[in-house]
C-alpha cells in the first residue's frame, strides 16, 4: 500500500479546480500580485482570495504583503507528495499489467497445444 501523506488530500483538492490550476500556471512564470491573478479569471476579488487560500493551505503558494499589495509565489516542491504518490501508483499498475500480460501469453500458449 502507498504511504499515507497527510497533505495529499489538500494537494489534490487544490489541484481539482481549473481556476486554481490556471493561477498556478500563471505563478509558474513568476510571482504576481493578487489583482493581476484575478483579472483573467473574471471572478470577484473575494472569490479569487478564497481560491488563493486553498492553494496556500495546500502549501502550493506563499503570499507576502507589502503595504496594500499582496503578492503570491508558487512553491514547486509542494507538489512532491503528489508526484511520489502518482509514481507509486504507476509502479503498482505497471506491475499488474505485466502480470496480466504474462498470464495472457501463458493462456494463449496452453490453448495452442
Query: N-to-C terminal Cα separation, in Å?
Result: 39 Å
CATH class: Mainly Alpha
Q: Main β-sheet: number of strands, strand sense, barrel status?
A: 3 strands, antiparallel
Our count of domains comes out at 1
Following the backbone from N to C, one meets helices and strands in this order, namely HHEHHEEH
| Uncertain parts | none
CATH H-level homologous superfamily name: Winged helix-like DNA-binding domain superfamily/Winged helix DNA-binding domain
Which secondary-structure class do the elements indicate? alpha+beta
Number of strands: 3
Number of helices: 5
Q: Could you tell me the strand content as a percent range?
A: 5-15%
The radius of gyration over CA amounts to: 21 Å
Shape: elongated
CATH topology: Arc Repressor Mutant, subunit A
| Residue-averaged pLDDT | 92
Q: Tell me roughly what share of residues is in helical segments.
A: 55-70%
- Order of the strands making up the biggest sheet: 1-3-2
- What is the second-level CATH architecture? Orthogonal Bundle
Please provide a brief summary of the model:
This protein is 61% helix and 12% strand.
Can you give a write-up of this model?
The chain is an alpha+beta fold and 113 residues long. The chain has a single domain (6-112), classed as Arc Repressor Mutant, subunit A (Orthogonal Bundle), CATH 1.10.10. The protein is 61% helix and 12% strand. It contains five helices and three strands; from the N terminus they run ααβααββα. It has a three-stranded antiparallel beta sheet with strand order 1-3-2. A hairpin with a 2-residue loop joins strand 2 and strand 3. The longest helix has 33 residues, at 80-112. The two termini are 39 Å apart. The model has no long low-confidence stretch (mean pLDDT 92). Residues 1-94 form the HTH arsR-type domain. InterPro entries: ArsR-like_HTH, HTH_ArsR_DNA-bd_dom, WH-like_DNA-bd_sf, WH_DNA-bd_sf. It comes from Ancylobacter mangrovi. One of its GO terms (molecular function) is DNA-binding transcription factor activity.
